[in-house]
Structures are given as structure tokens and as C-alpha cells.
Fold:
Amino acid sequence: MKVAKGQLWSYDIIVAVTVFIFTLAVASILSMNIAAGTGSDVLEDLSNSAWDFSGTLMSPGNPSDWNASVNASDLGTWNTSAITLLGMLESFDSPRISQSKAADLINMSASSYPALKAKFRTGYDFFVEVEEHYNCSDPSINNSAYYNCSGRGIPSGSEEWQSLEHSARVGSQNFTFGLDPDRNHATFKAVSNRIAVHNNSVVHVRVVLWTNQTR
Structure:
């Protein structure tokens, strides 16, 4: 049987997507229920804001080709009213992350996190990390050109080596941007979990909104 040219996904990816959707949907619902159950207005607002923030990321943005005119090191090219939303997907009908948009968001955060935070129109600090799932103990994984755990500097036998979750990469950089809440002593944080496709692999997109407010 011939496979249609536009049919890009294999059955393995479809099954993986289904499992991820179920698992992460349950995790998101539980995290939001826990936040609401505390009776804290801050946590409830954080949970709602984290879900909205992740929804913006899981879009191509507006305009959908916003990255075409951006130079991450030149604030004037992206801190402009011409770009109203920053998303990282290729299009609305695709779950694939744009490599160009991903690289720009990483570099924009490094260039001016405060300006990027303002661009996302959030009053909270944020941290985004994208993770792939693979087993470094599998020789075919460790010896592959892309995953290459040893080449990424993951010590053999370490906790990271044994873990099935690893930071995705954009070029030579880890696929993370924003401010890590743990390193900045966050008092409250909320997590929104999404899935996407990156480098033909199903990935976990973890969006954390956080604050140092005490109440």
C-alpha cells in the first residue's frame, strides 16, 4: 500500500503522541487542581497564566513568520508593535517546532530577558524547557550522530545518563530559555505541560511561570 506524500507521521509517532497527550493532560489537570486547592489567589492566577502562556508558545505567533525579520541581538528588530505574539510552531496546522523560531527565542532571552518577558505580556517570570526522551544506555542512541550522549558531555552512569528525559538541543544549545525558578528562589510556581515535535521526535514542552511574591 502506498503512503500518501503528505502523510508524514509514522504509526510509532502517532502512538507516542497519544500516550504523551494522556499523561501530560493528567499532569496539567492535577497541577491546576492542587494550585486551586490551596486557596491561594497567586497560585490560581499562576496556573491560569501558565496555561495561557504555553498556548501562545504552541502557535506560530503573529505574524506567523515573525522570525524572518528578527535579529536576536538587535532589540529594535523584535521589540516592536509589528510582532504581537511570539510562538514557536511552524504553523497552526502543524505540531512541529520551527528551528529558526526556537533559536531566536533562546537568543532573545540571552540578549534581553526583561524585553522578552514584556513581549510575552506576562507579569510573572517564566522558564521554558523542551525535553526529549531516550535511553543513553542504548548503544544505538549513544553512538548516533544526533543524540550522542557522550558527545553532549553526559557522564556515563550518572543520574542524567540513567534518566530517560534529556534537554532537547537547538544547534549546540540546550533548548531552554527564561529564568530558572529554582536558581532564583521562586516562592510560587505553576507548570503547564505541552507536547510538540522537534527534530522528528515527540518532545515534552514544560512551561513554568513563577514569582518571588510571598503571598
